[in-house]
Amino acid sequence: MLSATVIVASAATAAAGGRHAEAAVGVFTTRSATGAERAARARQPRDRLPSAAASALTARPAPAPVGVPGLSLTSSNGLKVFKRPPAPAAAEAYGSAALPYATTRVAVTVRGTPSEAPAETPVTSYPFRATGKLWSRFGGSWYVCSGALIGPGLLVTAAHCVVRYGAGASGFAEAVEWAPAAYAVSGGAETPYGTYRSRYVAVPAPYVAGTDTCTQGGVVCSNDLAVVVLAANGGVLPGDRLGWYFYAWNGYGFVASPLLGDQSVAQITQLGYPVAFDRGQQMQRTEAVGLFYGSGELKNVHIGSAQTGGASGGPWLVNFGTRPSIDGVSAGEASRQAVVGVTSYMSSQSGYNRLGASWFGQNAEYPAADYGGRGAGNIGYLVDHVCGQSALAAAC
Question: What domains appear along the chain, each with residue ranges and CATH number?
Answer without folding.
Answer: 2-395 (2.40.10.10)
